[in-house]
């Protein structure tokens, strides 16, 4: 009996040891070894930070040339004081890794198509395959080559990488970020290629929008006249970013006109998602002639998908020749948006088509060669090795052509389509954006700003500028191909090189403006320039509402103060509703409305068009609009076929001006509906949906509740770490906070000659550790429209009074 008891106890003990020390998969989700994860001395408990973390820490760092002081203020923003650029970038890499290591590495894994090494599901494998087939690593390697050819950026990348790796090398298991323990893996050494990948990841977010396949299918289905009606190149609404009629005094590049051959059959495939159409931004600069201080003021708020850890990492960089502050991208050196002693700058996305798709003609089923200019050219095969955690390695063969990688073929998303489609993307060009930000951080005036932008290729951006000397400016900068009329709108024939990009617009002929007579410059992703600009341009869409509201307020306001600009950044006025709701209400048969529909009608009738958090009218309007779009454009919901809806602005215009348009006829009903019929149907659907929502949530239909915004963890399965946010706004509003997207950083800078002052806020915190009080300590301030004054330190000694914690980096003794 004793032997049996001992044997049972031994088996239970061994089983428990095995259970506690091995990873498991439950419901398709990985579970870390419970013993390691729950270990009170080394597991996740060690990620809970003490409330009192004030201290001065001395560290000996390899590769430093001189001591470096780092002061952390009350928000845990680091202020780095170095004696040379090499030490400055090394310290930036080290300090950023201290707070954001997991985020940095995970984002570069995502960019490179390597998530399957961490999490293994079919969806993740398909995501990784897509990243490889889009040529993300290919583009990053070309960018890194350009960076390493320039001595300044070669040093930046090398020292920043060195700083990150010094931090990684000093980590023990108990110091690992929480996510490594949860997913049971360890960080790998950082490389300069990862910095380049991070920049390509941002280019993918901002510069990969296209509708070539959708437009090609629409042309085949509906004809040219209807395509021009539904998808006009320019919608003729609002002010362009730069309005300079007849003022373009240069000789543009001319290229030969050719008839653009396009596929004659419908393209049936499951298209990969491109840049999110709700991703946008606002920025503006106001001349001292319009401000109360007499000094220029600059504002910027980039709109992105909000996540935790936060997208941005606030930091100050100080060394001889540079004293800049703002936000960096974790994993990339320098400051991306910010200010220094002399200037300030911010960015919005420039809406330009920088993607083309080419239909490839193969020589046979083996697809070894493709036709180009009458010759059969061998494809270059790249075998992508995708490591899958707990499973065999997956191999995917990607063929490269003159145009770029063949993304869609018989083995990926085009299984029933025997064509191949090659991807031409501006992010595959050699480029060195790191040099732009190195120079901007040190710029003293408008001339320096212009020089810094000359090397910036992607993602195409609207760079706003202001200086203490009184200048304001806007420049739309990127590497823009010279296009023939309508080139780039449709899929092109890949058998002729003449259909490709023949030249690029010279920097000096890009769209720009300095000190305009109206006293301000602004951009909000709208049309870039007036029709007299001599180059053809197009985009998937142009913003139609935020830009007009911003320009209206700036035009009407004088003696502008900082609080006025903060108020404008948080403005909830819904111009789209103001222009569409009266027409929609007029189409309702209000006499016969009853119950919930009558209540909704009354609320909407008296609504002030502000999407404030407490507004019920905003909820009813947005629900109505969301019900209306799919009813109108049901003809475009064809299974397995790439098609897209017209823009919001054009849809409203068609409702008002062409109520009998055939697209207003709802498919699947015997009646022939008009715009009014569809508007009424959508109203009923919306009110029914809201009533159901009210019952399920036992709540009133206030906009903040109905919108249900949240900021999720960067890792989608970790919804438990998401934070709900109660705000107003929406994506067509200056305060562009929708359910998941919004202002990722708000900054206001007053460029006074007595000293630059700045205020900012962002949805999260400096730390990437969920156990830190600095993980989301700025979120309440951000959601309520409040700002913190940015502590712009001049030297480490003067900074002592404002210091929460200090690091002293010392070089190794030789």
From TrEMBL:
Belongs to the peptidase S45 family. The active site is at 281 (nucleophile). Binds 1 Ca(2+) ion per dimer. This is Penicillin acylase family protein. InterPro entries: Ntn_hydrolases_N (IPR029055), Pen/GL7ACA/AHL_acylase (IPR014395), Penicillin_amidase_A-knob (IPR043147), Penicillin_amidase_dom1 (IPR023343), Penicillin_amidase_N_B-knob (IPR043146), S45 (IPR002692). It comes from Chryseosolibacter histidini. The keyword Hydrolase applies. Gene3D superfamilies: 1.10.1400.10, 2.30.120.10, Glutamine Phosphoribosylpyrophosphate, subunit 1, domain 1 (3.60.20.10), Penicillin Amidohydrolase, domain 1 (1.10.439.10). The keyword Disulfide bond does not apply. One of its GO terms (biological process) is antibiotic biosynthetic process. Signal peptide: none annotated. One of its GO terms (molecular function) is hydrolase activity, acting on carbon-nitrogen (but not peptide) bonds, in linear amides. Ca(2+) binds at residues 353, 355-356.
């Amino acid at each position: 009996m004793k032997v049996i008891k001992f044997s049972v106890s031994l088996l239970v003990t061994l089983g428990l040891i095995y259970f506690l020390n091995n990873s498991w998969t439950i419901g398709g989700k990985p579970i870390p070894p419970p013993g390691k994860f729950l270990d009170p001395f080394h597991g996740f408990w060690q990620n809970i930070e003490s409330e009192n973390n004030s201290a001065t820490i001395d560290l000996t760092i390899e590769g430093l040339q001189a001591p470096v002081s780092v002061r952390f203020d009350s928000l845990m923003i680091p202020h780095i004081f170095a004696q040379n650029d090499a030490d400055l970038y090394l310290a930036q890499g080290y300090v950023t890794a201290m707070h954001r290591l997991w985020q940095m590495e995970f984002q570069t894994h995502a960019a490179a198509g390597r998530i399957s090494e961490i999490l293994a599901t079919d969806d993740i494998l398909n995501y990784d395959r897509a990243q490889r087939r889009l040529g993300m690593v290919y583009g990053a390697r070309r960018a890194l080559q350009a960076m390493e050819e320039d001595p300044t950026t070669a040093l930046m990348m090398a020292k920043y990488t060195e700083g990150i790796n010094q931090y990684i090398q000093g980590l023990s298991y108990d110091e690992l970020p929480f996510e490594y323990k949860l997913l049971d893996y360890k960080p790998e050494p950082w490389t300069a290629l990862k910095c380049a990948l991070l920049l390509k990841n941002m280019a993918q977010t901002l510069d990969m929008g296209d509708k070539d396949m959708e437009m090609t299918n629409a042309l085949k289905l509906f004809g040219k006249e209807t395509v021009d009606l539904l998808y006009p190149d320019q919608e003729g609404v609002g002010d362009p970013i730069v309005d300079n009629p007849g003022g373009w005094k240069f000789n543009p590049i001319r290229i030969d006109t050719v008839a653009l051959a396009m596929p004659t059959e419908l393209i049936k495939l499951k298209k990969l998602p491109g840049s999110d159409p709700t991703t946008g931004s606002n920025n503006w600069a106001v001349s001292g002639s319009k401000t109360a201080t007499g000094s220029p003021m600059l504002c910027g708020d980039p709109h992105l998908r909000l996540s935790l850890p936060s997208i941005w990492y606030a930091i100050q960089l100080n060394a001889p020749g540079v004293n800049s502050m703002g936000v960096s991208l974790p994993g990339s050196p320098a400051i991306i948006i910010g200010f220094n002693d002399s200037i300030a700058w911010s960015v919005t996305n420039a809406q330009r088509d920088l993607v083309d798709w080419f239909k490839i003609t193969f020589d046979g089923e083996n697809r070894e060669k493709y036709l180009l200019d009458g010759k059969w050219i061998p494809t270059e095969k790249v075998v992508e090795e995708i490591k899958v955690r707990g499973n065999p390695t997956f191999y995917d063969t990607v063929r490269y052509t003159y145009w770029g990688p063949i993304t869609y073929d018989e083995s990926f998303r085009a299984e029933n389509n025997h064509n191949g489609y090659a991807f031409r993307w501006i992010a595959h060009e050699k480029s060195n954006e790191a040099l732009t930000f190195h120079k901007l951080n040190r710029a003293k005036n408008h001339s320096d700003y212009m020089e810094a932008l000359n090397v910036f290729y992607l993602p195409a951006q609207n760079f706003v500028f202001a200086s203490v000397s009184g200048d304001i400016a806007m420049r739309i900068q990127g590497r823009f191909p010279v296009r023939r009329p309508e080139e780039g709108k449709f899929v092109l024939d890949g058998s002729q090189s003449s259909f490709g990009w023949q030249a690029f617009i010279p920097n000096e002929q890009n769209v720009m403006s300095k000190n305009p007579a109206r006293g301000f410059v602004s951009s909000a992703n709208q049309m870039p320039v007036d029709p007299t600009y001599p180059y053809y341009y197009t985009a998937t869409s142009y913003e139609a509402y935020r830009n007009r509201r911003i320009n209206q307020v700036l035009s009407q306001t004088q003696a502008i103060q900082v609080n006025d600009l903060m108020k404008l950044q948080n403005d909830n006025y819904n111009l789209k509703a103001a222009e569409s709701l009266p027409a929609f209400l007029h189409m309702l048969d209000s006499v016969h409305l009853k119950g919930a529909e009558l209540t909704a009608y009354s609320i909407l009738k008296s609504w002030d068009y502000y999407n404030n958090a407490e507004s019920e009218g905003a909820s009813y309007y947005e629900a109505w609009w969301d019900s209306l779009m799919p009813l109108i454009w049901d003809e475009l919901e064809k299974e397995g076929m790439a098609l897209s809806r017209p823009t919001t602005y054009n849809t409203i215009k068609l409702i008002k001006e062409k109520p009998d348009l055939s697209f207003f006829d709802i498919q699947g009903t015997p009646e022939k509906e008009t715009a009014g019929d569809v508007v009424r149907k959508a109203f009923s659907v919306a009110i029914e949906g809201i009533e159901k929502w009210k019952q399920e949530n036992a709540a009133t239909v206030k906009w903040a509740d109905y919108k249900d915004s949240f900021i999720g963890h960067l890792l989608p399965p970790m919804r438990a770490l998401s934070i709900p946010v109660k705000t107003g706004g929406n994506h067509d509003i200056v305060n562009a906070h929708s359910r998941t997207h919004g202002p990722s950083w708000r900054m206001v800078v007053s460029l006074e000659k007595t000293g630059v002052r700045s205020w900012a806020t962002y949805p999260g915190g400096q730390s990437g550790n969920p156990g830190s009080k600095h993980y989301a300590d700025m979120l309440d301030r951000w959601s309520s429209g409040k700002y913190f004054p940015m502590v712009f330190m001049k030297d480490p000694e003067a900074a002592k009074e404002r210091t929460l914690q200090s690091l002293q980096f010392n070089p190794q003794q030789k």
